[in-house]
Prior knowledge:
Number of strands: 13
Strand content: 5-15%
Oligomer: single chain
Amino acid sequence: MVRYAELHSHTNMSFLDGASHPAEMVELAAELGYTALGVTDHDGFRGVAKVHQAARQTGLPIVYGTEVGMSRITLPSREGRASRRLDRGGGSSTPHRTDVPSSGTLPLDPPASGGSFQDVKAKHSRGRIRRMHGSKPANKPETDHLVLLAPDPAGYAAISRFVTRGQYRGRKDEPRYDYRELEEASRHGNLVALSGCNQGAVNRAALTGDLNAAIAAAEHLRDLFPGRFYLEVWDHGMPEDDYRNDLVAEVARLTRTPLVATNNVHYARSRDADLAEVLAAIAGRRDLDTADGYRPATDQRNLRHPEEMHRLLSRYRGAVERAADLGESLAFDLDLVAPDLPDFPMPGAFTTEIEYLTHLAFEGARTVYPGEDGRIDQRARARLEHELQVIGDLGYAGFFLVAWDIVRFARSQDIYCQIRGSGADSAICRCIGLTRVDPIRLNLPFERFLSAERGRPPDIDIDFEAERREEVIQYCYQRYGRERAAMVANVITYRARSVLQDVGKAFGLTQAQVNGLTKYLDTRNPKAIRAEVDLPEGMTAEYIYDICDRLDGFPRHLGIHSGGMVVSQQPLWQVVPMEWGRMEDRTVLQWDKDDCAAMGVVKFDLLALGALNGMHLSVDMIREVHGVDIDLATIPQEPVIYDMLTRSDTVGVFQVESRAQMATLPKMKPRTFYDLAI
C-alpha cells in the first residue's frame, strides 16, 4: 500500500485562494488514508483552530504551517556565494536588505494612514468621531512564496512570531517579511521549509529554464534551513510540469537537496476547481475573461489518492514516500496552552490577586451593603465570601481585576460605562463598581454567572459610550503592549448581497448592473438568490446561481470583532499570529471568537453603546443650561415613566424598543427599575 501525506494545501481560510472548508479537507484526507495533512494557509494560522477540531474527530495527524511571500532579492552566482561563505568563515548567507527595519523587537508603529488616534484624541470634543480606515492594497509587490512547517509547538510559536513581525512591519493584507527574521525563526523553531508553488524562487527560475538561478535560490534556502529544506515536485497535468520537475530534480541532485511530492492543493475535490477559479478572479479584481490567462487549465489541484500520486511522480525516486515520512514526523497535537491573564500590579501589602480582589470587594461593600457599627451586612458578607471562594478556586481573580482596571480608567476619563448581562448576578461586580444592579436584594443566583459546573470563564460585557470607546481600547494597547493585547477577529463570510456582487462582477457584469440586482435583494441566504433575482436566461445565469449557492458561508476576509479584546501575560503570538486591522491603530488576532473559545483564549467584550453617549450629552447639556449636576444612579424612580413602559410607549428607548419587548412589557407591568433589570 502506498503511503502519502499532503504537505502543501490551502483551505478557504486563505481567503479567496482556497475552495474547501477546513473540515472538508481533513475529512477527505482521512478517507484517502493519508499519514498526515499539512495545512499551509497564507500568512498565518487563521484556519488552525477549525483544522484542529476536525482532526480531533477524525484522528488524522496534522502538520501546521503557512505559506509566506518573501521579498524578491537578487542572489549572487554560485561561485559568488561560495566566496562569501569563505569570507564569512561559514557564517550566515542571508542577503542584506536596507529597506527592512532590523529585527529584535516587533515593529509596532501603526502603518501610515489618515492621522493617528492621538491626533483624534487631542482634538476630542464629545460627539460623533469618524475614524479613518485604510484601503485594501492594490498592485502588491511580487514575492517569492515559501512554505514553512512546524515540527512541534516551539516551531509553531516561531512561525507565529515571524508572521506577526511581518504583519506588523507591513499593513493590512500586505505583510513584509525579513530574511534575517526568517533565519532566526528557522534556527529557534527547527522549521522545515518547502520550495513552494510556481511563485516560489526555485520553481519560478525552473519554469524559465534558468538552472543557475534555480541553484542559487535553492542554496540560499538550504543555508537558511540546514538539513530541513525540501524541493517540491507536483503534476497538475500541465505541459510545463514535466519540464519544471525535471529541472528541479537536477537542482536537487546538484545541491544535494531532497525532493518531496506535493500537489499544491486548493480544493478537496476536483469538482470545485471552477469555484477556485471564480475566487481567484475575485481576489485579482478581474472578470473571468481577463483572468483566463492566469488560471490553471486543469482541475487537478485537489487531494489525490496516494496511488495516483505514486503513479504520477514515481520517476522522482523517494519523493512520495518522503512526503509520508515527513508528514508523520512533523505532525503533533496542537493542545496549545491558553495564555494567562497578565499579573495585575498590586499595592505592597498584597501577595496574590485574590487577596487584592477580596480587599476591593469588602471596601466597596462597606458603602454598598452597610451594616451596624460601620461593618458589612452579614447576609452580604456571606454572599461575598461564597463568590470569592468560587473565583479563587477557579483562578479568575485576575479576570475581575483587569475588568475593574478598565472600568476605573473609563470613569477617570469621564466615560460612561456599565456592565451588562449575567455579570449583574455577582455581588463582587456590584462592590467593585462594575454594575449598579443589586444581586443580593433581587436574590439573583451567582451560579448563573460563574460556577465550576459551567466549565467556562465568566462572561463580562462592558458597555462604553460609543464615541469614546476607542480611548478605552487604546488604553488596553498602551497598558499591556501590542504583543499582549489584541482585538478578536471577525471572519466576514459571504451572504446573498455580497456574494452576488462579487460573483456577478467575476462573470462580467458591471458595477451598475450588480448594484441594480442587489439593491432590493431582501434575503441574506445565497440559496434564495435564484428566486429573488431575475437574471437573463442562459448558461451565464445558471453559473452565477450555482456559484452563489456554493459560496454560501465562505469566508471572504478578516474583520474586527465588535468589541472582543484579549489581554495576556505571555506574548499572544505564542498562540496565534496578530496583524493590523483595517481600522486605524487596531491590531487583531487571526482567530474569531469561536476559535478563541475553542482554544481556551479568554476575551473581554468592550462594547459601544450609543444610548450612553446620548445620556452623557444630556447630562452635560443640563449642567450647562441649568447648572444642575445629575447622577444617573440617584435619579428618582418616577411612576409616569413606568406607566409609559406598561403602555409599550418605548420607541427609541434602548433595549426595550424591540417588538418582543413591546409585546412583553404590558404583561410584566414593571413598576421599578429592578423589574426591568431582571
